[in-house]
């Protein structure tokens, strides 16, 4: 049942998929696990009052999961021109200028993609919170596990933003990217931690 193609590629010496793709994959896993909690909730008389909200969350999670899966390939696509730019010759002033221009252009997508991964992971963390508090009590531990995965994905993606803004010549753009990454990291990790603490407290009684 388990397709290990992505994991095999990740374990190889190929530069992609790498940390960004792994972050998106972990985020997609978090979204899928959160959806499972919702699917175990709908149709149950005990949760009739929140069924409409649960179904709405499930629709949003389906979209988010699809975006995160697409971002696995987007991350690899963003890395290709960055790697090519780093490999360009720089023996002459003209070559150095061409290399610098290519690098700066490639750094934009190399920051935009992990930032989008982070945005989607924050949405997953928010859904984890809802499902943990309102979903099936039989699956509350799964909501907690999903929150842990969402936080890990968020943190992993943030590392790609940080490393790439460090090479940006456009200080204003770099600061904007760094600020958004910090904001997303703070908000998403705080929510994921709150979900984990809530779930742990419920499990321990």
TrEMBL record:
Entries under Gene3D superfamilies matching the protein: Formiminotetrahydrofolate cyclodeaminase monomer, up-and-down helical bundle
Pfam families in UniProt: FTCD_C
InterPro entries named among the record's database cross-references: Cyclodeamin/CycHdrlase, Formintransfe-cycloase-like_sf
The Cyclodeaminase/cyclohydrolase domain, residue ranges: 5-182
Protein origin, superkingdom: Bacteria
Name the record gives this protein: Cyclodeaminase/cyclohydrolase family protein
Lineage of the species this protein comes from: Bacteria, Bacillati, Actinomycetota, Coriobacteriia, Eggerthellales
């Amino acid at each position: 049942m388990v397709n290990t193609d992505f994991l095999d590629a990740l374990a190889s010496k190929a530069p992609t998929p790498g940390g960004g793709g792994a972050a998106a994959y972990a985020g997609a896993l978090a979204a899928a696990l959160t959806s499972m909690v919702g699917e175990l909730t709908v149709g149950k008389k005990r949760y009739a009052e929140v069924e409409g909200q649960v179904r709405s969350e499930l629709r949003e999670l389906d979209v988010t999961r699809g975006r995160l899966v697409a971002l696995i390939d987007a991350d690899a696509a963003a890395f290709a021109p960055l790697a090519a730019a780093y490999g360009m010759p720089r023996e002459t002033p003209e070559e150095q200028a061409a290399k610098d221009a290519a690098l700066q252009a490639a750094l934009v997508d190399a920051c935009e993609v992990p930032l989008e991964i982070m945005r989607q992971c924050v949405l997953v963390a928010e859904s984890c919170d809802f499902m943990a508090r309102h979903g099936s009590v039989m699956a509350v531990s799964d909501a907690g596990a999903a929150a842990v995965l969402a936080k890990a994905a968020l943190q992993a993606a943030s590392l790609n933003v940080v490393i790439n803004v460090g090479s940006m010549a456009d200080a204003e753009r770099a600061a904007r990217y760094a600020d958004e990454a910090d904001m997303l990291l703070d908000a998403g990790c705080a929510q994921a931690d709150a979900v984990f603490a809530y779930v742990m407290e419920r499990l321990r009684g």
